[in-house]
From TrEMBL:
The lineage of its organism: Eukaryota, Viridiplantae, Streptophyta, Embryophyta, Tracheophyta. Residues 1-15 form the signal peptide. This is Aldehyde dehydrogenase 22A1. The keyword Cell inner membrane does not apply. GO terms for molecular function: oxidoreductase activity, acting on the aldehyde or oxo group of donors, NAD or NADP as acceptor. InterPro entries: Ald_DH/histidinol_DH, Ald_DH_C, Ald_DH_CS_CYS, Ald_DH_CS_GLU, Ald_DH_N, Aldehyde_DH_dom. It comes from the Eukaryota. The active site is at E297. Belongs to the aldehyde dehydrogenase family. It holds the Pfam family Aldedh. Residues 61-526 form the Aldehyde dehydrogenase domain. Keywords: Oxidoreductase, Signal.
């Protein structure tokens, strides 16, 4: 017992010291970002504000990206649609800056992250308001999808990022015992990202954080539907880079249309794309010209599975949040609901009751549960999916209500809708809706619901609810998808140590987690002598050129000595190896044949 007391005292002292150190706030400087031109101070009245009226139908791309608030159609301004030559110049500037940044220490990189984290925490309302104005989402949805996820990623990188980018030593195997083997992670150069509009803040920060922390530069093309907010968020990044003495041009945010994106793919060392499967295929085709690595995070049609042994009231609240996150503009959103027939009536009744209390309206104009649809004419697509389901026998069980909307605001809003009696012949159960619609289908057995969940071109995620956790895990393990949550929804993405991505038409490759961080790196395998310079590689005489007649016999015995199935075979082969090595030099095989 006397032996353990000193160890216990030391461990207790260490724990107390760690706790006291936690009480000392880190020395993190503050940054100032000019937001005077993006704040809506209420000075614009209906009479002096510019209401933007986009034309119907697909328009030819112009040299300007027009920006407006989806919820109010208030005009926000425009940004240039960059030409291929302009894109190449941005990448060239980032490449030059990256060569300097690649020499930075992990301490400097962590300080960059801490400065960002401090600014985000202190300016949550500003960041969320800008996201809300540009995409139509509510402030709560912006906080959940923009702020929390980004803060989680930053804190994970601060805590574990260096650990996973340091050289990793591996086993050398039987034939290389005199060597040491390791994997090194070097920056790729410039990481390109083409991101969607649904989370304008997080979709910029997500690839940027991994790229910069791993020593890369980053050039990010934001969506033409969320360019106004993206260009402001760049100011935050540039201010933080300046605060740690990093090159100003290390990170770029660019604006434009398809031509801009194609030029970016052609210029960078890796491309990360978040968007639709159709555009994803074009990205792959373009990337094949330069053979750069590609990560595709495409559409989702996640299955939300509810077994009969759950607390219905509890699951209903999660179901609504999963379906309506970001004003129905969800990423990895629940779009197919499968409820066991034993609780189907109860589940539908409860969720309809809650849906009727959900109000839709301009998110910054009042207390609304849901905001506007960001993309022009997307409400028409959603209504077409609903109409197709109704024509094939489905029914609308309940809908939310509109708030105080102007006469011209109909196209930007869509009421949250519950559809029952659905089946897989309906487009609503096969095509990605990306909207506030909950189609609910019955199932009778675990085997049936697994088959239904896998009957999809998509494979991003799933959520399974059951009072028996083992049962839920077993169901989820059989669903062919990249992420799964047990008795929860989207919790996998909040664990930033985990990789995120899907299969099938949901894409391939991973971002987030160790896998996503290392995907921004050149992964290099290195082998060195373990006892250099005392033991070096020497080619055994039986396989030196010109190869003697017993060269193959030596190799055959060496293979068996190393990998033989039992110790006696290996020992016998080893004796033969030593015997051949001790023999005087034999004539080359070619001489013997002559």
């Amino acid at each position: 017992m006397a032996f353990w007391w000193p160890l216990i005292v030391l461990a207790l002292a260490y724990a107390i010291c760690r706790f006291l150190l936690m009480l000392i706030p880190p020395n993190v400087p503050s940054i100032e970002v000019d937001a005077s031109d993006v704040l809506d101070d209420g000075s614009q009245t209906k009479e002096n504000s510019y209401i933007y009226i986009p034309r119907k139908g697909k328009l030819a791309q112009s040299d300007k990206v027009q920006c407006y608030e989806p919820a109010t159609m208030k005009y926000l301004g425009y940004f240039p649609a960059l030409t291929p030559d302009e894109v190449k110049e941005h990448v060239a500037q980032a490449r030059k800056a990256q060569k300097e940044w690649a020499k930075s220490t992990f301490r400097q990189r962590r300080q960059f992250l801490r400065i960002l984290l401090k600014y985000i925490i202190e300016h949550q309302e500003l960041i969320c308001e800008i996201s809300s104005r540009d995409t139509g989402k509510t402030m709560v949805d912006a906080s959940l999808g923009e702020i929390m996820t980004t803060c989680e990623k930053i804190t994970w990188l601060i805590s574990e990022g260096e650990k996973w980018l340091k050289p990793e030593y591996r086993s050398t195997g039987k034939s290389m015992l005199h060597k040491r083997a390791r994997v090194e992670f070097h920056p790729l150069g410039v990481i390109g990202a083409i991101v969607s509009w649904n989370y304008p803040f997080h979709n910029i920060f997500n690839p940027m954080l991994a790229a910069v922390f791993s020593g890369n530069g980053a050039v990010i093309k934001v969506s033409e539907h969320a360019s106004w907010s993206g260009c402001f968020y760049l100011r935050i990044i540039q201010a933080a880079l300046a605060a740690v003495g990093a090159p100003y041009n290390l990170v770029h945010v660019i604006t434009g249309f398809a031509e801009t994106g194609q030029a970016l793919v052609s210029s960078v060392d890796k491309i990360i794309f978040v968007g639709s499967p159709g555009v994803g295929r074009m990205i792959m085709e373009k990337a094949s010209e330069t053979l750069i690595p590609v990560t595709l995070e495409l559409g989702g049609k996640d299955a939300f599975i509810v077994c009969e042994d759950v607390d219905v009231n509890h699951v209903v609240q999660i179901a609504i949040r999963g379906a309506l996150q970001s004003s129905g503009q969800n990423c990895a959103g629940a779009e197919r609901f499968y409820v066991h027939r034993d609780i189907y009536p109860t589940f539908v009744t409860q969720i309809v009751k809650l849906f009727k209390s959900i109000s839709v309206g301009p998110p910054l104009a009042g207390r609304y549960d849901m905001g506007a649809i960001c993309m022009q004419e997307h409400a028409d697509k959603l209504q077409n999916l609903v109409n197709d389901a109704l024509e094939k026998g489905a029914e609308i069980a309940g809908r939310g209500s509109f708030g105080n909307l102007g006469e011209d605001a109909v196209d930007q809003f869509f009421p949250p809708t519950i559809i029952v009696n659905v089946n897989h012949t309906m487009k609503l159960m096969q095509e990605e809706a990306f909207g506030p619609i909950i189609p609910i289908m019955k199932f009778s057995s675990d085997e049936e619901v697994v088959e239904l969940a896998n009957d999809s071109n998509y494979g991003l995620g799933c959520a399974v609810f059951s009072g028996n956790q083992k049962r839920a895990i077993n169901i989820a393990s059989q669903v062919h998808c990249g992420v799964a949550a047990i008795n929860d929804f989207a919790s996998t993405y909040m664990c930033q140590s985990l990789p995120f991505g899907g299969v099938k038409h949901s894409g391939f490759g991973r971002f987030a987690g160790v896998e996503g961080l290392r995907a921004c790196c050149l992964v290099k395998s290195v082998v060195v002598d373990r006892w250099w310079p005392y033991i070096k590689t020497v080619i055994p005489k039986p396989i030196q050129y010109p190869v003697p007649e017993n060269g193959f016999e030596f190799q055959e015995s060496l293979v068996e000595a190393l990998y033989g199935m039992n110790v006696w075979d290996r020992l016998r082969a080893l004796i033969n190896v030593l015997k051949i090595l001790s023999e005087p030099n034999s004539a080359p095989a070619s001489s013997k044949r002559r």
